Amino acid sequence: MHKDPSTPVGTLHRLIIESSVLKANMLGDPALRVVDIYVPHGLDGEGLPLLVDLVGFTAGGPAHTNWKNFGENVPERLDRLVAEGTMPPVVVAFPDCFTRLGGNQYVNSAAMGRWEDFLIDEMLPAVENKFGCGGAGRRGVFGKSSGGYGSIAHAILHSDTWSAAACHSGDMAFELCYLPEMTSAVRAIAKAGSFEKFVTDFEAGPKWDGKDLHDLMTLAMAATYDPDPDAFCGLRLPVDMETCELDEALWANWLKWDPVLMADDHIDDLKTLKGLWIDCGSIDQYNLVYGARRLHKKLEAAGVAHVYEEFPDNHSSVDYRMDKSLPFLAKALSG
Fold first, then answer.
1. Are residues 63 and 182 in the same domain?
2. What pTM was estimated for this model as a whole?
3. Angle at 49 between CA 41 and CA 273, to 5 degrees
4. What letter would DSSP give residue 69?
């Protein structure tokens, strides 16, 4: 809820987009997608910059517009930041990109779907045409965890679309954040008997524990970075399913998507950004701080302007970091 009840309240709108590019996904996920849109109090969106919120694993964009206990949801946070003059007004879109495998990395995948194309070619025009916001040089993307990954991946690959990005605790240095999860996933698949049985058993519920969610997350990464076109939901792991030995050829397919390595071929593109924010908790339990440090050092050495911060916290419940990144993005795009 609003910390100060007198804070002017912005307006939430909802669009429904029937995607053509998502129809062929191997997961059988719906192509009809909800996008919530925040417009600041007293404005209609015309001429404002546009930010796009990419949420973390197990969530969808509208989760950030829902009521939140013991704090603010993102629209309430935006209301406060705009009202106190900390950031200029912006429109913010919250697309629902949830998938059967529990989340999204926001890049194109034969298994997961063409999520880059959905966000850039379908969602952006729908939002911008309706609200008169965004446009060339006026678009930014932000997110945490898987959303942080999506934000930095889009900044690297699509600097012609996005002019600013904020990556909070994003997935990178894959050997440190993903490989430690492989033994658990292999055990889970062996216990279930197959990838399909694990997924369908998970879907049957009736409740889900953290271990199962972590194993499902590993499968979502596999379907994103290295889908098998002939397998159920495109699923295969880059390890031997008996010994958990690394398959170097399959693992190489994953590494092509590691932002620390992806950046090498896009340094000049990154230099065109108006704003780039990267942060991570210094005790992140998924080891993401080491990837963040690697990317920071690489960008610094290459002369790519960016803000890099570490903060004394882990991976969980760090939405408060948006108090710093959102004003940074809004100012970068409003100049």
1. no
2. 0.98
3. 150
4. T
Look up residue 183 and give its DSSP letter: H
Give the chain's domain count.
2
Listed in order, strand segments (DSSP E) in 65-186 are 91-95, 108-109, 113-114, 139-144, 164-168
Q: What is the CATH number of the domain that holds 30?
A: 3.40.50.1820
Write the pLDDT tens digit of every residue in 107-149.
999 999 999 999 999 999 999 999 999 999 999 999 999 999 9
Distance CA 151, CA 326 (A): 13
Residues 280 and 137 grouped into a single domain: yes
What are φ and ψ of residue 61, in 5° steps?
A: -50, -45
**Range of 203's domain?**
176-255
Distances (CA, A) of 120 to 48, 55, 114, 243, 262: 18, 16, 10, 41, 19
Q: What is the CA radius of gyration of the chain?
A: 19
Give the model confidence (pLDDT) of 33-83 as tens digits. Answer: 999 999 999 999 999 999 999 999 999 999 999 999 999 999 999 999 999
